[in-house]
User: Fold this.
Amino acid sequence: MAFAGQPAGAGPSEEGPRPARADGDPVASTAAGPAPAPASAPRSPRRPALGTPADWVELLRLPALFTVPGDALAGAAVAGRTPGTRTLLAIGSSLCLYQAGMALNDWADRAEDAVERPHRPLPSGRIAPGAALAAAGALTALGLALAARAGRPALTVAVPLAATVWAYDLGLKRNWAGPPVMAAARSLDLVLGAAASGGRVRDAVPSAAALGAHTLAVTAVSRRETQGGSTAASLGSFVATWGVGEERTPPAGTLKLRGNGGEAPPFVPPGLTPAPVGVLRAALALGYAATVARPLAHAALNSSPPLTQKAVGGGIRAMIPLQAALSARAGAPLTALCTAALAPLARRFARKVSVT
Assistant:
């Protein structure tokens, strides 16, 4: 927080204001003669235009970053690959591109936020717009560089992903194309994990479509979260996300484990049978449905800004159990559990910094 108090001794005198001469110097109102001129008051402290670390945490919406690693992990799992160094590079690339999108989003919305969200870092003057735009460019370049280190297939996916992020923030989000473009970006992020891990991209398409459907539903609700949402949008998103959760939920024990080229599936502990993996997948899918359905149902019944924002926040956090369910469905239970472990962290930090 900025210092809001006055320095000691800088306030007005208890004797009240003094009359001034034509030259502007104060004079005493008593016969004691002219009083000494007071020292000039120190300037009020101001935040630097580059902002503080706390300002950047708010700008980049730190809690939302916990929803990003699961994309690449799920992409590797559905492609039948064990996460490795190139998967980590894909995660780093995704994090950079995601943060670039956050900074660019606030840069593009700074005039609108000055009216609706004047407390945000840019309209409040804590971070200069030029600094946010420069950060978006630098993070995009770093994200593409990390993807290039992961290999040409990863870079081939990262380039259109970055283009989609910039196109969305710089104009497409303001018309009907906004939700589909955002859904495409999230789907490409999962495909990036599959490509970087050396798996077949086409194996990742069904899971990428499920993640994209969820993103489309949440983005449709978020379009009017500051003015109050649409009951129809919230209800439609509720139905869509419930359908995604139902499709991810199998009968226990029906999951067929799949590995690299018919070998042992990735990250499956010795002795673990398909039945427990199926139960894990069902539990994660139900956890996803529970995370996203309740706030969306509330927003459908009452589309006020607070409930709409809670629905959007729940939809963002619900990506984590969805990613974990996709990994479990692909026969990677340890990857699923590692992804699910990010959910409590996202929930904890969301209490301090808004994800919307």
Q: What stands out?
A: Residues 274-301 form the longest helix (28 residues). The chain is about 60% helix and 0% strand.
